[in-house]
Amino acid sequence: MKHLVLTTLILLSCLSSFAQRSCGAMENLQHQLATNPDMAIRMEAIENQTQHFVQSSSNHQRTLITIPVVFHIIHNGDALGTNENISDTYIMAQLDQLNKDCRKLNADASLIPAVFTGVAADAEIEFCLAERKPDGTATTGIEHLNMGAASWEDTQIEATLKPQTIWDRNRYFNVWSVAFGGNSTGLLGYAQFPGGAANTDGVVCLYSSFGSTTTPNPAGGQYAKGRTLTHETGHWLNLYHIWGDANCGNDQVNDTPTQQTSNFGCPTYPHITCSNGAAGDMFMNYMDYVDDACMYMFTGGQKARIQALFASGGARASLATSNGCTAPDAVSNNSAGEDCSDPLPFCTDSGDTFSAGINQPSAPAGNNYGCLGSQPNPIWYYLRNSRPGQYQYTRK
Ligand SMILES: [Zn+2]
Question: Which among 321, 350, 371 is the end of a domain?
Answer without folding.
Answer: 321
